[in-house]
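Action item from last week, closing it out:
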Amino acid sequence: MSENPNEFSASQKTGNENVITDYFAGVKKLEVQGYESAVKKARNTLFVTAAVLFIGEIITAAISETELTPLIIGIALFEAGLFVALALWTKKKPYTAIIVGLVLFIVFGF
């Protein structure tokens, strides 16, 4: 028997380390699932923002009795396309895409 009762055998250390590792892996998996749902909501919001911006630009041009030239439609498509691109970018860099989308929304709002 060992002289120090606090010492664990090699198999006990490995067993305890596996339990701890498994626990933290499970916690991380739950956190990632929570993040994925939030990122999915943000992605959908970016798609909706793109559609609302495009429709808003067209309605604004129609109300102001401005002729819908290819330039106006192109600008509206460009603005909407930026938000669609950001929504797709959330699959690779979600935090960055969401922040850039928020900044662009504020810029286009003024």
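Closing note: The CA atoms of residues 5 and 87 lie 58 Å apart.
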